[in-house]
Design brief:
With about 300 residues, the chain is mainly α. The protein has a domain of about 170 residues. The protein has 13 helices and no strands. The N and C termini lie far apart (about 145 Å). The relative contact order is 0.06. This is FRIGIDA-like protein. InterPro entries: Frigida. It comes from Salix udensis.
């Protein structure tokens, strides 16, 4: 039996390695399977579908706008042709009247001197239908405004002619609204010194004054015209408020808006304070007398 020393000698060529027990590496955490990604071309198709819908909506709105503009253009053309035809008929009638020979049974006692003949010739155009009356009969608001602008140097003449001519219009209230246009939407800065818009605004204020002068005659006013006038007054007041309030508005704006509501009616939106402010800003005595012609205003401020 071999001794322990012998066993060690026999195994001297063999290296004894003491191996430590090794832990196994940790397993990575299990991840839930990710959902399959949507192919890129499907996303592109969705984007194109949304874009196509937007383009289709835009195209429909564009077509509607274009049709509306075409309708407006046709309406303007038809109205222009109608006015041109009436103007030609009026000129033809006046020409025929001018060519009509006068009666020849003039006696010696009715003969006039050369001076009297010249005076009669100068007065002859006055016997013809005045231009302003023809414009009112044809409901030509733009032409009426141009006529007033061209005669602003003689306001007294306009005060004599225009109110009487307005009575000849089929719808005086509608004619006045057409005449003033939309000047009331322009801010006060648009009417600075030497602005070409000043004369147009002055003409619009005057025609509102002339309409108030004949408002006692109770000209028929359709509901649609009343509604349009109410919208004009509300829009005018809204602009004044945006520029600092009705109380801080200029004298021209105050007079114009006061004339409008005095002739066409005071919208419910207007407070008593609004009406008082407009009256106080219109300080001239002549204008105060004009305002008293409106029963609507007198009832409101008394």
């Amino acid at each position: 039996m071999a001794s322990p020393s012998m066993a060690i000698t026999l195994n001297s060529n063999t290296t004894l390695i003491k191996q430590e027990p090794q832990d196994s590496p940790p397993r990575p955490p299990q991840q839930s399977p990710s959902p399959p990604t949507e192919p890129q071309f499907l996303k592109s198709i969705d984007d194109l579908t949304s874009l196509s819908a937007a383009i289709d909506t835009f195209k429909r709105r564009f077509d509607e706008l274009q049709n509306h503009l075409i309708f407006i253009d046709k309406a303007i053309t038809a109205r222009s042709n109608e006015l041109e035809e009436k103007t030609q008929q009026l000129q033809q009638t006046q020409t025929e009247k001018a060519k009509t020979p006068l009666p020849q049974n003039v006696t010696e006692t009715t003969k006039v001197t050369e001076t009297e003949t010249g005076t009669a010739a100068a007065a002859a155009p006055a016997t013809e239908k005045p231009e302003v009356r023809s414009l009112c009969q044809m409901m030509c608001g733009r032409g009426l405004r141009k006529y007033i602008v061209s005669n602003l140097a003689n306001v007294e003449k306009l005060r004599e002619e225009v109110p009487a001519a307005l009575k000849c219009a089929p719808k005086p209230a509608k004619l006045v609204l057409d005449c003033i246009g939309r000047f009331y939407l322009q801010g006060s800065k648009a009417y600075e010194k030497e602005s070409p818009m000043i004369t147009g605004r002055e003409a619009s204020i005057l025609v509102l004054e002339f309409f108030l002068l004949i408002s006692d005659h109770e000209n028929a006013m359709e509901d649609a015209v009343k509604k349009e006038a109410e919208q004009v007054a509300i829009a005018w007041r809204k602009r004044l408020i945006s520029e600092g309030g009705v109380r801080n508005s200029g004298e021209i704006d105050a007079k114009g808006l006061l004339l409008l509501i005095g002739g066409f009616g005071i919208p419910r939106l207007f407070s008593d304070e609004d009406v008082f402010d407009l009256v106080n800003l219109s300080k001239s005595r002549q204008f105060a007398g004009l305002v008293r012609r409106s029963r609507l205003l007198v009832t409101r401020v008394t």
